Amino acid sequence: MTDYMSRDAGSSSGTKKIITICIIIIVVLSFGYYLFKISPETTSTSASGYNGALNIPTSPTPIPAPAAFDPATDHFQGNASAKNVFIEYGDMQCPACAAAEPVFKQVPSQFTDTVFVFRYFPLIQVHQNAVEGALAAEAAGAQGKFWEMHELLFQKQADWESLGDPIDVFAQYAQQVGVANIDQFKSDITSKKYLPAIQKNSDEAYALNLGGTPSIFINGHPLKTTPDIASLKQEAEQFMNK
Length: 242
Description:
Largest sheet: 5 strands, mixed
Strand order of the largest sheet: 1-3-2-4-5
CATH class of the largest domain: Alpha Beta
CATH architecture of the largest domain: 3-Layer(aba) Sandwich
Helix content: 40-55%
CATH topology of the largest domain: Glutaredoxin
Number of helices: 11
Distance between the termini: 111 Å
């Protein structure tokens, strides 16, 4: 009898241990599932949030050349009626774009009868503030200061590229270039008001199967990025309209 009761007590104790372990496992799994469910909703709306708002097409329909220049929607410098159209697809956080900016800004004056166009191609996989930088340029552009902001963002790139959320720094830049309404500027960024324009440019870049930034074209023909204006003119000459 004694042996039977001992075995029964041991069996009961083992069963309780198994039940306790199962309860712990269920609690842990439930808590993990809860964290998984809430994590997208608690993600910061700073850099990763802005980048996350941009869609990358999975299978874009290829196009042979950039969309036609439209002075009503494109950012451009020079004569809108010029015979030649130079287009850059760039990323505001791209170091190579920043390095090339002093060369590209000479295009309207150094290329014969040529308008310079800038379009966005944010490389969100590698640049954490790419979309927010583009939104800052657009927000400044809405108040007539696109090119001033565009240039300053490239010049100051090393100061903001690693910030968790550079919006306050961008606001300082906006003041520096003469943006009148800073509250509106910041609101336009946080609301992602001009994301559709950036998305349109990005979709086009993917449809062109561009390999990176800056990617440049003259009259629809791709060019290599060169370190000086003379080399760029020499390469572009064969595609120029006289």
